[in-house]
Design a protein that fits this description.
By secondary structure, this protein is α/β, with parallel strands linked by helices. It has 8 helices and 7 strands, in the order βαβαβαβαβαβααβα.
């Protein structure tokens, strides 16, 4: 099965290192070139905007899912093929999960981690069997991966970290590994 729709979780801010936005844009460009549609939180700023703009710059399809509150705050990306407006964050997450064939987390904060851990928890529970990846730009997720290995070593993870997560530092390598993981499931 080819990976056609990828949900990307990431920060609405750009972070302090320009490498984060550059990697987000390059991921989007690679997705657009490979014909992989983006499903994401619908924002125009930060890493969200960078990945969406990257896909769009290569003629790719982008579908945003955003809450009415965030639209009212004028944070919605206005150049998308499709923007679904929902009432709650829970509805937003559920819609993105229902559309996507895989999930990737870029650098981000609490919201990104919430979405990542929900995808991982659901994988462990057998609710889905889609690949979950980390774009580990500049080692951003090294500490988290180490912590997860410790959790695994203490017997709290039924799905081992190396089976649950696809990790790469470069966008192209991550997409290759995600596609291979999607085909192998």
């Amino acid at each position: 099965m080819a990976l056609e729709r990828l949900c990307v979780y990431c920060g609405s801010g750009a972070g302090l290192d320009g490498a984060f936005a550059d990697a987000a844009r390059r991921l989007g460009e690679a997705m657009g070139e490979l014909g992989i549609s983006l499903v994401y939180g619908g924002g125009r700023a930060g890493l969200m905007g960078a990945v969406a703009d990257g896909v769009l710059s290569r003629g790719g399809h982008v579908r945003g899912v955003i809450t009415r509150q965030l639209v009212d705050m004028e944070t919605a990306h206005t150049g998308l093929a499709q923007l679904d407006v929902v009432e709650t964050m829970h509805q937003r997450k559920m819609m993105m999960v229902s559309i996507a064939e895989g999930f990737v987390a870029l650098p981000g904060g609490y919201g990104t981690l919430d979405e990542l851990f929900e995808a991982l928890a659901w994988l462990q529970l057998g609710i889905h069997d889609r690949p979950v990846g980390l774009l580990n730009t500049g080692g951003f997720y090294d500490g988290l991966i180490g912590w997860l290995r410790g959790v695994e070593g203490r017997g709290f993870l039924r799905v081992p970290v190396d089976r649950a997560l696809v990790v790469a530092r470069e966008p192209g390598a991550l997409l290759d590994a995600m596609s291979s993981a999607a085909c192998g499931r």
